[in-house]
Amino acid sequence: MIKENVTTQDLLKGLSDFLHLKDERTDNDHKKILEDNGLDNYSLTELHVIHCIGEESMRNLTTISEYMAMTRGAVSKICSRLQTKGAIEKIKLADNQKEIFFILTAEGERLFHAHEVLHQQSQAKWSALFEQYNQSEKQAIQRFFADVTNAFRHS
Length: 155
Prior knowledge:
Helix content: 55-70%
Number of strands: 3
Number of helices: 6
Distance between the termini: 35 Å
Order of helices and strands: HHEHHEEHH
Largest sheet: 3 strands, antiparallel
Shape: elongated
Radius of gyration: 20 Å
């Protein structure tokens, strides 16, 4: 049953419950898909770096850090771990020996596709949920997302 007058406390409680369940569910879904594919020794951040590289077939450290909104140092450490795990490799172009690019290995390709499945499943679940709302409710949800995103960007 939905209360007619919703307080700020009600919203904070709902947000807290949502974030906790989302993190718990995401971790479990992530682990299950990776386990099903025999790739359960990768973090979600490592998967996102693999996804970033896989989208463009090769990327350098700067473009990965911009895409991930992380420092070059943090991305460099992740890329080193991914190289050690055999998911990516460094290459230099013949006409530019100074700049280093990263490409996916066969293992990286497998991870990239497992990550795509994870995203498709997540989008299908969210789409089904959003379809339950009428247009004005969707507009309120969209405004909330925009406000939250803006608040995080400016905090």
